[in-house]
Every structure is written in structure tokens, then in C-alpha cells.
Specification:
Chain A: InterPro entries: NusG_2_sf. The complex is a heterodimer of chains A (122) and B (177). Chain A is of the alpha+beta class. Helix content of chain A is 21%, strand content 34%. The chains are: A alpha+beta (122), B mainly alpha (177). The A-B interface holds A 1-2, 4-9, 11-13, 16-17, 19-20, 23-24, 27-28, 116 and B 108-109, 111-114, 116-117, 120-121, 124, 142, 145-146, 148-149, 152-153, 155-156, 159-160, 163-164, 167-168, 171-172.
């Protein structure tokens, strides 16, 4: 009777396990952001660490945009914009992600870790 | 020209047709079981039907494996009513990719490499084919890469388990026909 797992099978298993680990490290490893940059009318309004939970109120032309930081993520919690696009974007947790509230001229961008892209143009 | 009932031609199915049909039927049942099992992530399934494909490959060669796999995919599409839906296309892409993988793995020397290698290669090709299709037509965004390690881990586990089961069933004292 032959062994269920032959030597080559162990080799295949080891190689694919290594490949899986490599994939996990490269795709999940360093993408998590560490800070959030809040911009108001093109100028940096605040840069906050994602490690400390807090709510930042950002005054804009239409009213106050609230940025919430919790559990290493950030989101626009409240915004006076009519269509609420930035609020509906929900939680951001990876470097390079942005949420822009155009009517209120406010945006948040996560940074730190490895950024997926250098800049975004709209 | 008209055809009347006396014109019927009989296609005599031979032994290999019966074998393929039997295996495809078993594969269909396993595909149904597969679909019924709860899954932690859409698309992560044990792929039990692949055990049958492996047995077809090792017992009767690549042709039988292609037939069994193809019949299972189309048959499952008909049974689930998912023919030509994205889910069916994903299944087809995965099936074709894993058959290509099986064809390659089957050429490895049999002394060192057994059904487990074939099963693992097929499982990884399956997720590869599915993800490629999903990236191309269903979710044209690199966000899908985020799920790749999870799928790879699932393929590693299910590929090994299915391979060991197939190897066990392929032992000479087993009647798997």
C-alpha cells in the first residue's frame, strides 16, 4: 500500500503553504493606516493618530463636519452635505483611502503604512 | 425530408460512457452537498466534487476527468437554476483552470507525486481562475486582492483534505466504481 501523502505531495504542500503565507504577508501586511489627515479648504486642519479614539469637529462653509476615529479606523460621522457621499463611504482603515465631503470642502485621508498610490486627482 | 419514428438511430453507450455518467452523478450529489454547507466567505467551499474528478483522472485518465468535471458543472448549473449566471461562469472558469492544473500535475512522476499534489494544484488553479474572471468582469477593482490570502488558505486546506480522501479511495482495495 502506498502512503496517502507521497514525498512530492509534502513538497507541494510546503511550497503552497509558503506561497499562501507570502500572499498573506504581502497583501495584508502593511496596508493598515496609522494616522488620519483632515483637510479643510485645501489646508491641513489636523493630523491625528488612529490609536486614540476621538471625534474632531471641522467647521466648513456649510456647517460642521464630524470626523470620528475609533479602533484604528476613521470615518466622516456627520456632514452637512446634501448627498452624504462621504458619510456613506463608512469606515476607512487602509493607508491611502480618502473620504471627501466636497460641498463642505472637507476631506480625510489615511496615511502611514504602505500607500497604495501616490496621489489622487479629481 | 421528414423523419418518422422508425428512423431513430441508437447510440450505443459503451463502458466508458457508463463510467463517466456514474462518476458525474456522484459528483453532482457532492456538489449539492457542497452548496448546502454554510460558508464563511462567499466562494469558499470544500469542493467535494473534485474528489470524483481526481478519481476519474487517476482511474481513467484526463479525458474522463474533463467529462466528469464538465458534466458536473453544467449539471449543477441546471439543478441550481444558475446556468449562465455569474456564479456559474465563476464555477466554469475555476473548473477549466483546475483541469489545466490537473493535466499538468498528472504528468509529474507518480512515484513522488500522488493525488494530493493534483488536488492542491487543482484547488489553487480553481481559485486562480475564479479570481481572474471575477477581477476581469465582475469586480473590476484591485480591492479583490484583499481576499486572495483567505482564498489561498481555503484552497490549501480543502486541496489537502480532498486529495487525501481521493488517495484513500484510490487504494487498490477500494471499489470506487
Amino acid at each position: 500500500m502506498r502512503a496517502l501523502l507521497r514525498p512530492g505531495d509534502w513538497l507541494t504542500l510546503a511550497l503552497l503553504a509558503a506561497a499562501t503565507a507570502l500572499l498573506a504577508v504581502s497583501l495584508w501586511g502593511d496596508g493598515h493606516a496609522r494616522t488620519v489627515r483632515i483637510k479643510q479648504h485645501g489646508r491641513l486642519f489636523a493630523e491625528a493618530s488612529l490609536l486614540h479614539d476621538r471625534v474632531v469637529a471641522v467647521p466648513g462653509p456649510l456647517g460642521v463636519t464630524e470626523v470620528e476615529i475609533a479602533a484604528g479606523r476613521a470615518r466622516i460621522r456627520r456632514d452637512p452635505s446634501p448627498r452624504q457621499y462621504c458619510v456613506r463611504q463608512g469606515w476607512l482603515d487602509r493607508a491611502g483611502q480618502v473620504a471627501i465631503c466636497l460641498p463642505n470642502a472637507t476631506s480625510i485621508e489615511l496615511s502611514g503604512g504602505e500607500r497604495a498610490y501616490d496621489s489622487l486627482q479629481f | 425530408m421528414t423523419a418518422c419514428s422508425s428512423d431513430t438511430r441508437r447510440l450505443a453507450p459503451d463502458d466508458s460512457d457508463h463510467r463517466v455518467a456514474r462518476l458525474a452523478a456522484v459528483a453532482l450529489v457532492l456538489a449539492l452537498v457542497d452548496a448546502g454547507l454554510p460558508s464563511p466567505l462567499p466562494g469558499v467551499k470544500p469542493g467535494l466534487a473534485n474528489i470524483v474528478t481526481l478519481i476519474a483522472l487517476y482511474r481513467y485518465g484526463l479525458g474522463a476527468a474533463v467529462w466528469v468535471s464538465g458534466l458536473r458543472i453544467v449539471g449543477a448549473g441546471l439543478l441550481f437554476g444558475s446556468l449562465m449566471t455569474p456564479g456559474f461562469l465563476l464555477s466554469l472558469a475555476g473548473g477549466l483552470a483546475s483541469l489545466a492544473g490537473l493535466a499538468a500535475a498528472h504528468r509529474l512522476p507518480a512515484r513522488g507525486f500522488g493525488p494530493v499534489t493534483a488536488s492542491l494544484v487543482a484547488a489553487f488553479c480553481h481559485i486562480g481562475g475564479q479570481l481572474a474572471l471575477a477581477r476581469l468582469i465582475l469586480i473590476p477593482s484591485d480591492g479583490i486582492l484583499y481576499f486572495v490570502p483567505a482564498f489561498a488558505l481555503a484552497a490549501l486546506v480543502t486541496g489537502t483534505v480532498n486529495g487525501v480522501l481521493a488517495a484513500k479511495l484510490l487504494e487498490p482495495d477500494h471499489e470506487t466504481d
